[in-house]
Amino acid sequence: MLRKTTILVLLLSLLSTAALLANGSRDSGTEDKGKLVFYAGLQEDHAAMIAEEFEAEFGIETEFVRMSSGEILARLKAEKDNMTASVWYGGPVDGIVAANEEGIIEPYVSPEAVNIREGFKDPKGIWTGIYIGYLGFVGNRTILKEKGLEMPTSWADFLKPEFNQEIVVAHPGSSGTAYTMLATLVQMMGEDEAMEYFKKFSPQVRQYTKSGTAPGRMAGLGETTVGITFLHDAIKYKKEGYEDIVISAPLEGTGYEIGGVALLKNGPDQENGKKFIDWVLTKEVQEMGKTVGSFQFLTNKAAMPPEEAMPIKDTKLIDYDFQWAGENKKRLVERFSIETSTTAPTE
To answer: How far is 25 from 328, CA to CA, in rounded Å?
Structure first.
């Protein structure tokens, strides 16, 4: 009888110890909350800030890989059956639409989507907008003056002889920024006329870069006379100290991006991905962008746009069709590459 009693006491003691350890683990917050990996199509400092803030707020280990939109799409197609990331964050939604055509996107309508302005979210939850950026021109004031050139204010200006080999722009095969340029001119001119334009434009280009942000930095450094980029990136570089930067927008109209966020199909951490999407759509998180020099207009109804963006708020915009642009991306990039005899840079 004594032996049975002793065994019973030992069992109760072990159970009590296990319960205490479990409670202690919960109290100390050491339970495993999983992980989140997202692919970022916006500036690296913005992505790093968001990853750090999300991890700090939710205790979820967070990592990101920054790539241009074309690279993200290529990576996702390669990983389709073995996804590494759970979220696509930032960069033009044309790329997300193209990814959806490949069966890579998991529709998700966030509870926070009700706070996003109409026209800046897909009703089926393929993507939800987080910011708006205007496509435009960037130049170096000193070089323009030295060469006796006026800052371009029209798409036609880039075809003038004086701009031969003075232009830097990304390639639409690798860059969402450059694809916005391609889709903009196709929508403005018609496809055949736009391709005729690009056949004349391409010999004027000194360098096709991989990333759409590169022309702005190169203009600031005096490495090019003019370039084509999203204007908020040029504003960022000017604010960082590249004082020779000047910007303009085409008078006949320009396209724009909706930077989006989307859930990836078969991502490894779907619930954390949804939590991340809910969080980045909030007013507070959207307004964090300006702290790292992201000066886009914002999609949350209550979010205040950065003051730095106000000088370009009256830019003339075309009625840009994001759905069409995404669905036709592969075909248009292929035709552009053939017509201009160019390929997307890999380095």
So the answer is: 52
DSSP E strand stretches across 99-162: 105-106, 128-140
- Which of 3.40.50.300, 3.40.50.720, 3.30.300.30, 3.40.190.10 would CATH assign to domain 133-255+326-340? 3.40.190.10
Residues 276 and 56: their CA atoms lie apart, in Å, by: 12
d(CA 10, CA 8): 5
In the chain, where the domains are located: 35-131+258-304, 133-255+326-340
For residues 174 and 7, give the distance between their C-alpha atoms in angstroms, rounded to a whole number: 69
Nearest to 65 by CA among 45, 39, 84: 39
**What secondary structure letter does DSSP report for 317?**
B
Contact 93, 127 (CB under 8 A): yes
Rounded Cα distance between 310 and 216, Å, is: 19
How far is 272 from 254, CA to CA, in rounded Å? Answer: 37
- The tokens describing 340, both together, are 């201009």
What letter would DSSP give residue 241? T
- Predicted confidence (pLDDT) at residue 11 exceeds the cutoff of 80: no
What is the pTM for the complete model shown? 0.88
Q: How far is CA 324 from CA 140, 153, 186, in A?
A: 34, 27, 11
Report pLDDT digits (tens) over 224-237: 999 999 999 999 99
φ, ψ (nearest 5 deg) of residue 110: -70, 145
Cα separation of 87 and 38, whole Å?
Answer: 5
Report whether 75 contacts 39 (CB < 8 A): yes
Q: What are 265's two structure tokens?
A: 């199909």
Looking at residue 152, the DSSP 8-state letter turns out to be: P
% of the chain at pLDDT higher than 70: 91
The one-letter code for the residue type at 132 is I
3-state secondary structure of 263: strand
Higher pLDDT, 7 or 60: 60
